[in-house]
Amino acid sequence: MLRKTPLAAAIMTVVAAPAAAPLYAHAQAAPVSKTDRTARTDQTATPAENATLPAVHVSGQADTATDFQPEKSSVGAKVPTALRDIPQAAVVVPKAVLDSQAATSFSDALRNVPGVTIGAAEGGQIGNNINLRGFSARTDIYLDGFRDRGQYYRDTFDLESIDVLYGPSSLYFGRGSTGGVINQVSKQAELKAHASVSAMVGTSDRYRTSFDINQPLSSTSAVRLNAFGQDLGSTRDVMKNKDYGFAPTVRFGIGTPTEVTLSALIQHNRDQPDYGIPPVNGAPVPVSKNQFYGFEGDRTIQDVQTFSARIQHRFNDNLTLRNQTQFSHYSTEATATNAAAVLTGPLGTSTALANGNYTSLPLSSLYVKLQGKDRNINDHSVYNTTDIDYKFNTGPLKHEVIAGIDLSHETYSNQSFTATAAGLPSNTLAIVPLLNPQYTTRPSSTKVVATNLAESSANGIGIYANDTVSIGQYWKVVGGLRWDRYEASIKNTINLPSYATQTNYFTSVRGGIIFQPTDWHSYYVSYGTSFNPSLEALTLTNNQQNTPPESNRSYEIGTKWDLLGGGLSVTQSLFNIDKTNARTLQADGSYTLDGDVRVRGYQLGLAGHITNKWQVFGGYTYMDGKVVKALDNTNGKTLANTPRNMITLWITYDVTPQWTFGGGPVYTSARYAASNDLVQVPAYTRWDAMAAYHQKHYDIQFNVQNLTNKHYYDALIPSDGGRAVPGYGRTFLATLNYRFY
Fold first, then answer.
1. CA distances from 253 to 81, 160, 188, 319, 390 (A)
2. Which residue in 324, 281, 286 sits closest to 306, CA to CA?
3. Chain-centre distance for alpha carbon 183
4. Residue 68 · residue 616 · CB < 8 Å
């Protein structure tokens, strides 16, 4: 049925609209009013637009920070845009949802986003590795509209929301964005003084504290500082993290025609890298979820320094000019270990299993080779964007044109090492039993030798324009065009190619039609494209240096409804993403653009109030991901790390003005670790719960993550046959939030 996308969407719309109409009519007496929310938002908003989502007020709610239903997104255009005016599926995860879940890591926050799966540390990639609708989005993570390409583990301490736009979107974001983009929206300084501190303690020796201080400097300027520190143990053996970060921001000219914002993110992570467990007989080896394959001294040290400046001048209500610049430096020093080949004996010469590691031998007679993954990585980037937002009329047509130019310069270096213990093959640290290996430090005989040094750089320029045309009262047409020039080069001291350079030119398009017959429901169709150069991530596999960019296209049809008097947003979409010239490996070792990868599916989203005491946030997605064509053994297989079904749901209920209870499941169906369909990870359902006690100046909150202590696999790695990282076991958290004023 999903293959008949337009017909299926039409049926969905025809069937669902009559059912929704009674809900809308009944909700006129509901306690939540979108009109009231919009009016109050307009009263509190400043004329200047910025990257922070506007305050959202709900009738009957005492504190706007508890609202699950934002009305705008930072990723539909270069400016915050109403969700109903974006002809693509978009999800905004607000701070209120993250706070109620005690979600402090970027990965935990993205559990609320249907269609997102997690990849673990892989090769030269460390940090958050995200798949969106089946495609890698590691370089499609943004911070306040700028590419946040560093390889580090992100935190939520300075975030107002996480905004996700689905589907190819190179019009606004340049290279990448095959499955979509993820934008982190940071907290901004504001004219109302406030200060708060938070302290969290949990089982498995989890400790965290953070604070948020905002202070006006004058009637038009303010400064804000967010900071956090944490020492986190884990239900996984050996694993532990020690991190801290600061995020200052200052704004001048708030509410005036010219506004200047300066901000920074400074973060330090000392984490334990987790490369997961190996497969046996086509599935993760059935060991304890606490089992760790590595050494006690393994660690990843990451430092992030990002500095941003934005100046915005509003000539009048119809014309605004912006210029933004960001400088970033990321460094990573990794001493890590992964479980590589599964062996039939304890010697380096023992036979290694392959192709899913199928064997009739008992697990007690199998061994694992522990391999070093040591490297030093440095990333630098400079981005600058100048854009204009111009509203004007041509006869009966109303236009909003956003046009601009993006400039970028990026450099990357990756020094890899081999770590070899005496008497073992190269880059082998130990050979340990598959079951219950002993935890030790690295052998004292380990010899670490520097191997390949990869150094790369890239310069990019993108020129774009997008016009949203309002035709009468009910119709909007969205159309845009972008031209990119992306020049990149790489050199290796040992690996091949020793030197390669590429200059890619690409034109991206975006188009959509939106029908809004009332202020509570909207319908759209859209089309978009994107491109992926071989040197997109500034890394390169030999024999890919001469291939042109991969190109992607997306078709989508959907609806966006505001039910129950505007209190509950319900979105639906049917989508089809094609990578029609995917790189595919030929028999002679070279690559050609003969592959075809496709993901088709359906998505449902919910956000907002069912009553003024009962809130919900969640979604469902169905994804049919397939390698339609390839010259290797992936031809006709299921796309890696792309489950058919995913459900996320979070519900809270205010039993009294002081007490709130909540919880919900996250469900992910079975998925393959790699696109060869040899190793499959089983489906799982994880349940979380919370209870909170509210007072004027403080909240006390209790969370239970993985309530049923489910043994499940959180992140997947395609290498070494397909490794999987177990999720955390049951964890209890207690949080005290204190507001000084």
1. 22, 21, 13, 17, 21
2. 324
3. 8
4. yes
Q: Is residue 697 part of a domain?
A: no
The Cα–Cα gap between 298 and 230 comes to: 19
Q: Within 287-420, where are the H helices?
A: none
CB atoms within 10 A of CB 640: 25
508 bridge partner residues: 482
The CA-atom distances, in angstroms, between 653 and each of 170, 612, 615 are: 40, 9, 6
| In-domain check, residue 723 | no
∠ CA 250-254-255, nearest 5°, is: 170
Residue type, 15: V
Q: Please give the torsion angle defined by the CA atoms of residues 41, 46, 50 and 53, in that order, rounded to the nearest 10 degrees.
A: -10
From CA 270, how far away is CA 248, in angstroms rounded? 22
Quickly list H helices, 337-477: none
Q: What is the pLDDT of residues 687-727, one digit of tens each?
A: 999 999 999 999 999 999 999 999 999 999 888 889 999 99
Taking the C-alpha atoms of residue 668 and residue 682, their distance in angstroms, rounded to an integer, is: 9
Mention every residue, 6+ apart, whose C-beta is less than 8 A from residue 138: 119, 125, 128, 129, 130, 537
Give me the helices (H) in 231-304, please.
none
DSSP 26-78: HGGGSS--HHHHHHHHHHH--SS--SSPPP---TT-S-GGG-----EESSSSS
Total tally of structural domains belonging to the chain: 1
Residue 722 resides in a domain: no
3-state secondary structure of 171: helix
Place of tokens 């979105």: 571
Per the structure, the complete domain to which residue 188 belongs is given by 5-670
391-422 pLDDT, tens digit per residue, is 999 999 999 999 999 999 999 999 999 999 99
HSE-CB of 188 using CA atoms within 13 angstroms = 28
Query: How far separated are the first and last CA of the chain, in Å rounded?
Result: 56
The alpha carbon of 617 is separated from its chain's Cα centroid by a whole number of angstroms, namely 17
CA 192/CA 63 separation, integer angstroms = 15
CATH of residue 215's domain is 2.40.170.20
CA–CA gap between residue 554 and residue 525 (Å, rounded): 11
Is there a domain that residue 688 lies in?
A: no
Q: How many CB atoms lie within 10 A of CB 497?
A: 16
> pTM above the 0.70 mark?
yes
